[in-house]
């Protein structure tokens, strides 16, 4: 080949390398398995739970998706393995396991490429990637729990996949078959299973992320994307007061989401702008922000959690309430599970309803407000004992209840997640 043609070819490959699927090959002499091809069958999965009065799930599965059967696995060499921290040192999201999952999407190459599990590594993306400039990205959060029987379980991962595809649809990113991603993630957890804490106070957090990696400044749907998943052993998310509750600050001058926006999708642009408001709340002695909306100061979310209250309603019954999904609120997996489980308890009325700060204050003055708590994957259940609002503190008697609902909810969820009771919400993977 003439030298000029060789230079042109090299230049073309360099300029278009982002369009090719990355192939990782370790040349170290310490590598004990080279380009291991996994041919084992998919992990056994438990059927998802039937949900009472559940709305039909939207069909978000595209015609073309990556497949678990095409998964390639490259195991880390001994020198690439990280020391495992003690449970009491974990914190939240500070440590990461030995492997990660990567799946590229390139429209020019037919769409989704073959999924690959590889040793944990830094990402290399173009400085003009859309994810860096226009927040063309989204993420999910779920956990793997080591049960009392030493089996590892996921909690309703199909709901995370449904929500992830809805966020992809909203962001112009490619959608995929959620069941195939669950299988790939399950294999990743199996490989790094010793990172799942042998504890019922800690878990393995799973963070699937999808980003646009096009090296162009055009504000349009990306032609190239990267879906990856990393794992992190975690313990408590919030630092709590001595009684185990948190204090929150309701600032009517800031909003988290607005009608027609993307507040009901798990995209990074919902979270970055909350940091300054959270820092101000912390300086005032609170752990998180209670996000309000509108002239009536409607409660929406608290931090990155869904919000619940327990009160005595006008009929004298104990009622569990949470704001309805009106486009401003993330449809939490824990939120949905609480509503479905608690609706089966005969001693509790369960309702989705608009809750305003005036409602909250009035119920508290009348002695009818019993509890307040946040719920989410990271924290499970976080009881709330104080709300700062304008120039007042609203003290919630959450921790003074003889048989609190929040504790009953938490105990039920943890019993399912750690295998103390068999339940279709838990999906055994190992």
TrEMBL record:
The keyword Protease does not apply. Its EC number is 2.6.1.42. PANTHER family: BRANCHED-CHAIN-AMINO-ACID AMINOTRANSFERASE, SUBGROUP IIII AMINOTRANSFERASE. This is Branched-chain-amino-acid aminotransferase. Residues 41-60 are annotated as: Disordered. CDD domains: BCAT_beta_family. It is an enzyme of class 2 (transferase). It catalyses: L-isoleucine + 2-oxoglutarate = (S)-3-methyl-2-oxopentanoate + L-glutamate; L-leucine + 2-oxoglutarate = 4-methyl-2-oxopentanoate + L-glutamate; L-valine + 2-oxoglutarate = 3-methyl-2-oxobutanoate + L-glutamate. Its cofactor is pyridoxal 5'-phosphate. The keyword Transferase applies. Belongs to the class-IV pyridoxal-phosphate-dependent aminotransferase family. Keywords: Amino-acid biosynthesis, Aminotransferase, Branched-chain amino acid biosynthesis, Pyridoxal phosphate, Transferase. NCBIfam families: ilvE_II, PRK13357.1.
């Amino acid at each position: 080949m003439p030298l000029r043609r060789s230079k042109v070819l090299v230049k073309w490959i360099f300029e278009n390398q982002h369009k090719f699927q990355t192939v990782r090959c370790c040349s170290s002499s310490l590598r004990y398995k080279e380009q291991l091809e996994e041919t084992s069958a998919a992990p056994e999965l438990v059927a998802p739970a039937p949900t009472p009065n559940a709305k039909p799930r939207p069909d978000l599965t595209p015609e073309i998706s990556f497949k678990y059967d095409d998964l390639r696995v490259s195991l880390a060499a001994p020198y690439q393995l990280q020391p495992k921290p003690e449970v009491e040192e974990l914190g939240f999201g500070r440590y990461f396991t030995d492997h990660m999952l990567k799946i590229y999407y390139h429209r020019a190459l037919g769409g989704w490429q073959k999924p690959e599990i590889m040793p944990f590594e830094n990402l290399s993306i173009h400085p003009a990637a859309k994810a860096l400039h226009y927040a063309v990205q989204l993420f999910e959060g779920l956990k793997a729990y080591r049960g009392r029987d030493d089996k590892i379980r996921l909690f309703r991962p199909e709901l995370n996949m449904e929500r992830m595809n809805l966020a992809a649809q909203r962001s112009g990113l490619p959608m995929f078959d959620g069941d195939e991603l669950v299988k790939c993630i399950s294999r990743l957890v199996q490989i790094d299973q010793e990172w799942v804490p042998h504890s019922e106070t800690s878990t393995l957090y799973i963070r699937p992320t999808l980003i646009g990696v096009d090296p162009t400044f055009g504000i349009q749907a990306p032609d190239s994307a990267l879906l990856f998943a990393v794992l992190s052993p975690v313990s408590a998310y919030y630092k709590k007061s001595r009684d185990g509750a948190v204090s929150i600050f309701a600032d009517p001058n800031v909003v988290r989401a607005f009608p027609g926006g993307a507040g009901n999708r798990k995209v990074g642009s919902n979270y970055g702008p909350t940091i300054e408001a959270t820092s101000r709340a912390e300086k005032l002695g609170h752990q998180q922000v209670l996000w309000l909306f509108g002239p009536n100061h409607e409660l929406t979310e608290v931090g990155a959690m869904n919000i619940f209250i327990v009160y005595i309603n006008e009929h004298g019954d104990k009622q569990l309430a949470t704001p309805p999904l009106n486009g401003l609120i993330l449809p939490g997996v824990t939120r949905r599970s609480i509503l479905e489980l608690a609706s089966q308890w005969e001693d509790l009325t369960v309702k989705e309803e608009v809750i305003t700060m005036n409602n909250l204050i009035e119920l508290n003055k009348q002695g009818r407000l019993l509890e307040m708590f946040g719920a989410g994957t990271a924290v499970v259940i976080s009881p709330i004992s104080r709300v700062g609002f304008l120039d007042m503190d609203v003290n919630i008697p959450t921790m003074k209840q003889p048989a609190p609902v929040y504790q009953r909810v938490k105990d039920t969820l943890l019993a399912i997640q750690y295998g103390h009771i068999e339940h279709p919400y838990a999906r055994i993977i190992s």
